[in-house]
Amino acid sequence: MSTAFRPLLTTLARHRGVVGSMVVGESDGMIVQAALHVGVAGEVVAALAASLYRKARRSSAAAGFGDVGFLTLEAELGRLCVIGRGGLVLIAIADRGVNVGLLRADMLAAVEELA
Amino acid sequence: MTLAAAEGWVEGPMRQFIEDARLCHTLLLHPSGRVLAQHGFARSADVMSACALAAGIRASAGELGRMLDGRPFVELHHAGEGTQLYLAEVPTPRGQHVLLAGFGSESSLGLVRLYRAELADRLARAAPPAEGARAALPEDFELDLNRNLAVLFGRA
């Protein structure tokens, strides 16, 4: 891992249960930088999560709710947490054991570095 | 969604790909420029032109890649202001094919790349047994091209 977002991704990777974190282009769904455990399908998650975030933003705007804050998807075996700013999206992939509150706090702080 | 395929085995995989990736224009063609499936084009002349251009770009990019990187470039992306273009090779049991996909803000490069991989898997499953290597010989090319265009635009 190298360059601009390394400290941010390292912070997220320290959370117990986080198996991957990525900075991804919101419009193209392409990975800018990532820290992933072996076996995590980063490119696939990046493309789909960025798409999900874009759609959430549009849905929120259409409903008159303004900007999207923290987006979390709870699934049977894990959680996907997404937050964005300035055309970039920060994505955390975690198992069910993650402390979502702490992760959310760190992601909210980290998103300031995206812009 | 209007999709026309000159060969039946590509229709299902292409339909799924176009729906998943939310494309506005799509072509699947042989590297020679012979069209196999089209979506989003209204005129056969446009399909013929787009196929010729896509085949030319693919050939040029391949050579450029060999010169610069020792291997051909197999994916190209152009981020236009409104419509984006993605050109890539798709391997099938019947040889390499070329995919040209046009998409807008409903989709993204990441999604199109993701679903292209799934398209290749589906084409591999759908392909009938190979008939043996059949090159697009110069004497056959125009005949094949015109036949496929006629099938796609309901003139066959």
Give structural notes.
The complex is a heterodimer of chains A (115) and B (156). Chain A has helices at residues 6-13, 42-62, 100-110; strands at 18-25, 31-36, 71-74, 78-85, 88-95. The longest helix of chain A is centred in the middle third of the chain and has 21 residues, at 42-62. Chain A is globular, with a radius of gyration of 13 Å. In chain A, strands 2-1-5-4-3 form a five-stranded antiparallel sheet, sandwiched between helices. In chain A, a hairpin with a 3-residue loop joins β3 and β4. Chain A is α+β, with helices and mostly antiparallel strands. Chain A has one domain (6-113): Dynein light chain 2a, cytoplasmic (Beta-Lactamase, 2-Layer Sandwich), CATH 3.30.450.30. Chain A contains three helices and five strands. The two termini of chain A are 20 Å apart. Chain A is 35% helix and 30% strand. Chain B is α+β, with helices and mostly antiparallel strands and 156 residues long. Chain B has one domain (3-127, 135-152): Beta-Lactamase (2-Layer Sandwich). Helices cover 45% and strands 23% of the residues of chain B. Chain B contains four helices and six strands; from the N terminus they run βαββαβββαα. Chain B has helices at residues 11-21, 44-69, 109-126, 138-152, and strands at residues 3-5, 25-29, 35-39, 75-79, 84-92, 95-103. In chain B, strands 1-3-2-6-5-4 form a six-stranded antiparallel sheet, with helices on both faces. The longest helix of chain B has 26 residues, at 44-69. In chain B, 37% of the residues are buried. The mean pLDDT of chain B is 89. Chains A and B meet through α2 of A and α3 of B.
Features:
heterodimer, A: 115 residues, alpha+beta, Beta-Lactamase, 5-stranded antiparallel β-sheet, 30% strand, B: 156 residues, 6-stranded antiparallel β-sheet, 45% helix
